[in-house]
Specification:
Elements (H helix, E strand, L loop, with lengths): L9 E5 L10 H11 L2 E5 L6 H20 L4 E4 L5 H12 L3 E5 L11 H11 L4 E4 L9 H6 L5 E5 L10 H11 L2 E8 L2 H5 L12 H17 L8 E7 L2 H11 L4 E5 L14 H7 L5 E4 L2 H30 L3 H31 L21 H27 L7 H28 L2 H8 L3
Parallel strand pairs: 1-2, 1-4, 2-3, 4-5, 6-7, 6-9, 7-8, 9-10
Antiparallel strand pairs: 5-10
Length: 452
């Protein structure tokens, strides 16, 4: 994570001139002071001289107040769309962290700060710390971070590699604050499971075993961290994830909560129903959201492959148009059909990952289907198993035919039959995955359904 880069420590704070937006300053000041980072204040302006002058004057006044406290701050006034300009400035400054309040206005026009936050979260390559402002009676965020008893960073985990991507950033903050790290895993309560739209029969599964498994997992994660053992605590709680996370933050007097996105949730909108959104709506602690870099790398790789497939399709089509032989045209059409199908599939995969980079909705809101054979229609299970057997037999039969037809049309029939046999084997693997997904052990599905 770039927050750990000692050569470039920049904390970027977008402001809009409102007192609500300025509530992000105390937390940013405390983190910058603890880590030795440079504060950079940003206000997006319309492309008029009057707007620029006003924005610069405002940032100068804020920087002057900070200077009185011994804190130096740079000032930047970019133009354009607020969210895009903030992300571009963070990239230009090579920022390590963006600190934003969650309400107010953020730039030209009447664009709500909520939409700007969504835009920044959706595009930012660096962690974003959201400071709640919906409860003005809360203490100054700086007081929690500077309080020696409150220098605790809480990291909820769900057992996934994506959730664990928040850990390097959290560790860097713990080291800077000289605080402690608390690793939390939430085991859904019976009521939480039963209330889900697609509740399953395993809602009555014993919680004790899951609680013990959660603790074992957290201890394993703690053992792999670079922090001294005495600075890392682990805790498993039973309950609804958002409520349990917020309660743990209160009980530990945490400075902030650090969360990564999950492989099936997302990161751009913060509605009711999202675990991160629900935690933020508690309005008690700053929430640090970390973009999952592994997911981004996969998205980049898929994007490159889609571009390559697009070029291949164009070349194949051009070639097919230049060859008059109908048999060759048929063979090229088979290849083109596969390339088109691959292109559509890659696009859908990339689209899924794009939505996964936004806090869109809780994992429990996603239809997961029944987890046990007894809850599925017996006909559906039997049909899947029959299809698998048919594909196995079909592949064997096609290969047998390919051997018999080896000399027809200079081996063309054998080639086509072999291709069809490979398709049957592919179908068999897909059907096996579908069946295993539907019938896999409920405990594993429980672990997957928890979203940080």
């Amino acid at each position: 994570s770039k927050i750990q880069n000692p050569k470039s420590k920049i904390v970027l704070v977008p402001l809009d001139g409102s007192p609500l937006a300025e509530r992000a300053l105390p937390a940013a000041q405390a983190i910058a002071a603890a880590s030795g980072a440079q504060l950079v204040l940003v206000r997006v302006a319309l492309e008029t001289q009057a707007a620029v002058d006003e924005a610069e004057a405002y940032l100068d006044s804020v920087a002057g107040l900070l200077a009185e406290r011994g804190i130096a701050a740079e000032r930047v006034v970019p133009f354009g769309d607020a969210g895009g300009a903030i992300v571009a400035e963070a990239r230009l400054q090579r920022a390590n962290l963006v600190v934003m309040a969650t309400h107010g206005h953020a730039g030209p026009g009447r664009s709500s700060h909520g939409s700007v936050v969504e835009a920044v979260l959706a595009q930012s390559q660096v962690p974003v710390l959201l400071v709640p402002t919906n409860r003005p009676e809360l203490p100054d965020p700086e007081s929690n971070i500077q309080n020696p008893k409150s220098k605790i960073v809480l990291v909820p985990l769900d057992g996934s590699a994506f959730a664990e991507e928040a850990l390097p950033v959290a560790e860097a903050l713990v080291e800077a604050l000289r605080g402690k790290l608390v690793l939390l895993r939430v085991v859904p309560s019976l009521g939480a499971l039963a209330s889900r739209p697609h509740a399953r029969g395993d809602a009555c599964a014993p919680r004790d075993g899951l609680h013990a498994e959660a603790l074992d997992y957290l201890r394993h994660v703690a053992d792999r961290r670079s922090l001294p053992p005495e600075t890392v605590r682990v805790e498993a709680r039973v309950g609804e994830p958002a409520e349990a996370i917020a309660a743990a933050g209160r009980d530990h007097c945490a400075s902030l909560i650090a969360m990564s996105t999950h492989g099936r949730t997302g990161l751009g909108r913060l509605p009711v129903g999202s675990v991160a959104g629900a935690v933020l709506q508690q309005g008690e602690l700053p929430l640090l959201l970390v973009r999952p870099l592994a997911l981004q790398r996969m998205l980049d790789a898929l994007g490159a492959h889609i571009a390559a497939e697009t070029d291949s399709l164009a070349a194949y089509r051009q070639l097919a148009e230049t060859i008059p032989d109908p048999m060759v045209a048929l063979l090229l059409r088979l290849v083109i059909d596969d390339e088109e199908r691959h292109h559509r599939l890659l696009a859908r995969m990339a689209g899924s990952l794009c939505s996964d980079l936004r806090w869109a909705r809780a994992a429990e809101a996603l239809p997961t289907g029944p987890a046990r054979r007894g809850e599925m229609a017996a006909e559906a299970v039997a049909a899947l198993e029959a299809f698998i057997q048919e594909e196995q037999e079909g592949a064997r039969h096609l290969r047998h035919l390919a051997c018999q037809e080896a000399h027809f049309h200079d081996g063309l029939f054998a080639l086509l039959l072999e291709v069809m046999a490979m398709d049957s084997e592919k179908h068999e693997r897909v059907l096996h995955f579908v069946l295993e997904r539907l019938l896999e052990p409920p405990r594993r599905r429980d672990a997957e359904s928890q979203s940080s």
